[in-house]
């Protein structure tokens, strides 16, 4: 999306770089979170459920309309939702490891 917006002239090179870095961070957070969910449950279903929940709630139900365009800060909203979700999963993982140790 950031590259497409840059090619179409809707964003600058600096916006392309910032948004690209944001997406890379987002993918890293989601990968680690889904790995932790697999380690906690031994199943891929929890990661699939997390992905579904985040797509439905964070991405699709909560839209922000700004003066410039509809949902111009979508990546920020998604990143915040993923960070909150990551922290919750990480806390469960840490508590589970303390119990089993």
UniProtKB/TrEMBL annotation:
GO biological process entries: proteolysis
GO molecular function terms noted in the UniProt entry: peptidase activity
Transmembrane segments: 12-36, 75-95
Keywords assigned by UniProt, alphabetized: Hydrolase, Membrane, Protease, Transmembrane, Transmembrane helix
Protein name: Membrane protease YdiL (CAAX protease family)
Originating species: Blautia caecimuris
């Amino acid at each position: 999306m950031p590259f497409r917006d840059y090619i179409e002239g809707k964003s600058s090179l600096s916006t392309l770089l910032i948004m690209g870095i944001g997406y890379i961070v987002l993918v890293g957070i989601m990968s680690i979170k889904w790995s932790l969910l697999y380690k906690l449950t031994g199943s891929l279903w929890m990661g699939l459920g997390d992905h579904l929940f985040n797509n439905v709630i964070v991405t699709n139900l909560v839209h922000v309309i700004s003066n410039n365009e509809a949902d111009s800060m979508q990546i920020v909203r998604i990143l915040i939702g993923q960070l909150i979700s990551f922290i919750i999963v990480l806390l469960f993982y840490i508590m589970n490891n303390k119990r089993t140790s």
